[in-house]
Amino acid sequence: MIIATVKPSLVLTRDGSHSLRNNITGEHYHSIFGAYTESMHVFVAAGLQLQASATATLRLLEVGVGTGLNLVLAARYALQADCSINYTGLEPYPIDIEILKDLNYNEFIGADLFNNYVTAYPQLLTGAAWQQANFEANVLQKPLLEFESEQCFDLIFYDAFSPVSQVGMWEEASIAKVASLLAPGGVLVTYCIRGYIRRQFLALGLQAEKLPGPPGKREMMRITKPKHV
Ligand SMILES: C[S@@+](CC[C@H](N)C(=O)[O-])C[C@H]1O[C@@H](n2cnc3c(N)ncnc32)[C@H](O)[C@@H]1O
User: Which of 43, 44, 149, 220 lies at a 20 to 30 A Cα distance from 137?
Assistant: First the structure.
């Protein structure tokens, strides 16, 4: 169980980028072997690079916005690759802006873009979009199971806490929910790979790939919804 009122602690991961530790569960928001490296590997290289050209405007959903690292990396990708991305993020327990200001992602992503995100963060949490040229982000303070959407998504970053601390995020209701949010041909990427989770996606008619993981992790998982189900 996550207790939102307890402040997470800042930690330095092995590639020099920051992450946060939840002080109730002891769980980190990213890999301690490198937060930036993990996000680039799992979400950008295995997800965004594959799907960016799938549709004119990529519909991207992130489950677990946290620090916004993946959100800002997606914005940077859209700006650099000149593609259009519409990002929706779910975060029922948003971090405090003072914690966000302490993160050193400006050194990894680019100071202008990250500082711009930090400035926009309070409005983003009240429902205003953050727009950067062809990238638009909206964040909803909702848990996955309460999220209703008229649109499906071409790409999902499934970045929930691990099954050790948040088992419900990897059980049938959550997996069925997130699978239902994928568009035909859509892709979900996650750092977490366990046999019982992979089998739940397979049972729903989706395809599951094991890919090499980021530093400190042998494998990661990529799920694809067939174009014709
Ligand atoms: C592993 S961290 C995410 C890291 C994040 N993507 C980042 O780059 O900082 C997991 C996040 O999921 C959020 N979370 C917890 N329960 C959730 C739920 N039911 N639906 C969506 N997000 C949830 C947590 O508050 C936390 O921010």
Answer: 220
